[in-house]
Amino acid sequence: MTSLENTGRSLVAARPGPVAWIRIRQIRALASVLEAIGSRTAGRAFLVRARDWPFLRPLLHGLLGCRRTFSDFDAARACAERYAPLGHEHPHALRSDIGLADVTRESDYPVLFHLAPGAAEIRTVFDLGGSVGNLLYCYARHLPFADAMSWTVYDLPAKRAEGARLALERAERRLHFTDELDSASGADLFIVSGAAHYFPEPVDQMLRRLARLPQRVIINRIPCSRGRPLVTVQDGHAYFVACKLHSRDELIAGMEQLGYALRASWPVHEHRLWVPLYPDLSYGHYFGFYFELLPSLNVSSAAGPA
Questions:
Q1: If 214 and its partner were Cys, which of 38, 106, 122, 187 is the partner (CB 3.0–4.6 Å)?
Q2: Span 122-166, pLDDT tens digits
Q3: Is 135 in contact with 191 (CB distance < 8 Å)?
Q4: 254 closest CA partner among 300, 289, 306, 211
Q5: What CATH number does residue 187 fall under?
Q6: Is residue 160 within 8 Å of residue 179, measured between CB atoms?
């Protein structure tokens, strides 16, 4: 029995009851109204002021439930689990990731463009939050990866198990799975696509812990904040997950401090994550970034730049 089938057995127990569904609909309705208000200049100015009014702030936070902001990631996670305990390991999330193995999305093309010139020379790839390895299946249809290349995915146990099953089914021997971030040390390519906001630490802080920095880093499909980071809960329709909108400026600055140069950035219009009470910090789209380690730092360790 696959991990997807095992998870499916617990779906009935994890499904919200009637009262919870009413609450979820109320939260979604209010979030939609606030988003519509915040999309206009006057409405944005009103929400920026109103969210700090002592008598209104508790009311808005209470009515927004999981769509409010939180002081830390653990608080957001605890709130999300009250609505949907399965989160990232929900069967709908797993099925979606498996389906994406056979799809090339618009935001994949900037990545393919930047990887194409040296794709045949890539020997080691570390895919943070890479689910079932769907990116390898997608990119391998377009790029001449070597048979000896090793593509390592770091993700949750259920996704690793389903990914291993899929790799066996498709006879993909280049795909491997791990629960060790250290496996990214010295990789030719470090990629995190659609997952960076599910980690409380920004990517540069995770890279600092490695013995050797990866040569190239791609951060794709990431929602960012225009200013300070924001911790909230993302509504996945069938499930809810804690997430963090990392500051766009801080992300770039952190990578540059490590010794990386930003070679390209692009908007990702397939997704948006709007924080209802923070229209001033919310973008209308996600982002993609491509970084290269400067030649003078090609053997740099995390103990280097502070």
A1: 187
A2: 999 999 999 999 999 999 999 999 999 999 999 999 899 999 999
A3: yes
A4: 306
A5: 3.40.50.150
A6: yes
Instruction: Name every residue whose Cβ is closer than 8 Å to that of residue 272 and which is 6 or more positions away in sequence.
Output: 223, 283, 284, 285, 286
Helices and strands, counts by H and E, the chain: 12, 10
Residue 127 near residue 151 (C-beta atoms within 8 A): yes
Mean pLDDT of 15-39: 88
Q: Token pair 């994550």 is at which residue?
A: 273
CB 185 within 8 A of CB 211: yes
C-alpha distances out from residue 196 to 155, 285, 286, Å: 12, 15, 11
Q: Could you read off the pLDDT of 76-122 as tens digits, one per residue?
A: 999 988 877 665 666 666 777 777 788 999 999 999 999 999 999 99
Domain count within the chain: 1
Q: Which residue reads 């309705």 in tokens?
A: 29
DSSP per-residue string spanning 53-97: -TTTHHHHHHHHGGGS-BSSHHHHHHHHHHH-TTGGG-HHHHHHH
Nearest to 46 by CA among 282, 280, 285: 280
pLDDT tens track for 268-291: 999 999 999 999 999 989 999 999
Tell me: pLDDT of 1 over 90: no
